[in-house]
Amino acid sequence: MWQVLLYITGCLVVMLGLLVVVKGWQYRQGFGWCTSQASMEGKVVLITGASAGLGKETALDLARRGARVIMACRNLQKATKVLEEIREATGNNLVEVQLLDTSSMASVRKFANNFLKNEKRLDVLILNAGIIGPSKLTFTDEDNEITIATNHLGHFLLTNILLDLMKKSSPSRIVVVASLAHAFDEGFDIDNLNMKKNPYPGSLKTYSYSKLCNVLFTKQLTRYLEGTGISCNALCPGVVGTEIFFKGSWNILWLFYGAVSKFSKTPLEGAQTIIHVAVSEEAETKGEFYDNCKVTDSSPLSNDLVLARKLWEKSEYLVDLKPEERHY
Ligand SMILES: NC(=O)c1ccc[n+]([C@@H]2O[C@H](COP(=O)([O-])OP(=O)(O)OC[C@H]3O[C@@H](n4cnc5c(N)ncnc54)[C@H](OP(=O)(O)O)[C@@H]3O)[C@@H](O)[C@H]2O)c1
């Protein structure tokens, strides 16, 4: 009897394994690839969080296309090693690293004002830096919740300060690296962007909220940018095997990563949608959401224009946007 059971169990395990392999293979066939050969010579690209993962791959590709790439990173030592790799691989010595911590509005202001002093144009701004924050509720020195500050508020302020330069450089593009996780929005409270109301929803929920903020920001900014020659689009790079899963204190993410890593994208594959939206002639869209290099629907809540407007106002308040920083 037990031999029959063992045989059936064995068959089930083999079938399940085959199913996983087939489904994983099918998922991999759906990966989008940027086919544009567009040259970026003479263009200035600013990318946040280029010291690892998707940002690093994107910086490498844009450097290959001849752009002057400014890698805005929080860890200069780590980023300088990546810079050397990129210069060596591409022969492009216009690539540079500069210090930027997107969780600190003081750092964003310092970086952006220096940028305005030193650069004559900005053609592509890629808002990529991101974290899945610590499992315990954590605030920055400026009293902002750290994930919302890093993934949304810092980018909100940076974009606002650089907007005038981007208008002068138009046609120019803003690329917002969001995530399909933006759709896990249950419990999102626009009056609780600082996560001060009890109970704290946890780091994964807060990450999803920060990515919802990325998409809402894209929608509202698109309205403000009408007639300026600047486009703004958001995207999901897919599930990509990067350091982001190991930096938070969530061990469960290790398990998740272990389970999906066989079929998840490599950073090179994940970067394709970012590169596509940044350079492709096919991506001359405004206010869209991309997945696998194609326009797709974002969640219903991310299309709520009243909410998008409210988020903009709350963000202005939280970063204390000054009149001279407002260019829309
Ligand atoms: N990986 C995925 O499956 C996935 C899926 C959907 C969306 N995304 C999004 O893709 C973007 C890139 O993530 P990734 O997967 O490439 O992760 P990653 O490998 O961890 O890279 C994140 C980058 O952001 C930087 N960063 C983090 N906090 C920063 C801060 N306060 N100031 C400046 N830079 C900061 C990191 O710097 P350090 O090197 O110093 O840590 C690193 O360069 C994120 O916005 C993420 O939400 C990723």
What would you note in describing this structure?
With 328 residues, the protein is an alpha/beta fold. It has a single domain, classed as NAD(P)-binding Rossmann-like Domain (Rossmann fold, 3-Layer(aba) Sandwich), CATH 3.40.50.720. The protein is built from ten helices and eight strands. An eight-stranded mixed sheet has the order 3-2-1-4-5-6-7-8, sandwiched between helices. The chain starts with a helix and ends in a 9-residue tail after the last helix. The mean pLDDT is 93. Bound molecules: NADP nicotinamide-adenine-dinucleotide phosphate. The site of NADP nicotinamide-adenine-dinucleotide phosphate (NAP) has 31 residues, from helix 2 and helix 7.
Brief sketch in words of this structure:
With 328 residues, the protein is α/β, with parallel strands linked by helices.
Strands across the major sheet, in which order? 3-2-1-4-5-6-7-8
Helix-strand pattern, N to C? HEHEHEHEHEHEHHHEEH
How many helices? The count is: 10
Q: How far is it from the N-terminal to the C-terminal residue, by CA?
A: 75 Å
Described by strand count, sense and barrel closure, the largest sheet is: 8 strands, mixed
CA-based gyration radius = 21 Å
Q: Strand share of the residues?
A: 5-15%
